[in-house]
Amino acid sequence: MNLSGRAVQAAKSFYQVAPAEVMIVLDDLALPCGKLRIRPDGSSGGHNGLKDIERMLGTSEYPRLRIGIDPRRRRCRAGIMCWPFFGRAADVD
After folding, report:
1. Tens digit of each residue's pLDDT (9 = 90 or more) over 27-38
2. Do residues 25 and 65 lie in contact, with contact meaning Cβ atoms separated by under 8 Å?
């Protein structure tokens, strides 16, 4: 997902919409599991996928919805979030 910009740019062009009309949804280790944060624009916050989207769109002025995941979980060797949710995390609505 670190190279999401190309797909976002293609969808934006296909649907002929402005960056402000494209909602990016992403996971966020800095938020507790199940917590949502929505912003109309902003920085990448170090998220490589958002950096690539900003590079391809030429702007950081697009909405994003961050979904918190449990930051205490481990990562797989490739740095990918790859564990099943269980316990209370599985019950988040």
Report:
1. 888 888 888 999
2. yes
Compute the Cα dihedral for 41, 49, 55, 23 and give only its sign: negative
Alpha carbons 82 and 46: distance in angstroms, whole number: 20
Higher pLDDT, 29 or 43: 43
In a domain, 50, yes or no: yes
Domain residue limits at 39: 5-72
Per-residue DSSP letters for 9-22?
A: HHHHHHHT--GGG-
The distance between the two most distant Cα atoms of the chain, rounded to a whole number of Å, is 42
The pTM of the full predicted model, rounded to 2 decimals, is 0.73
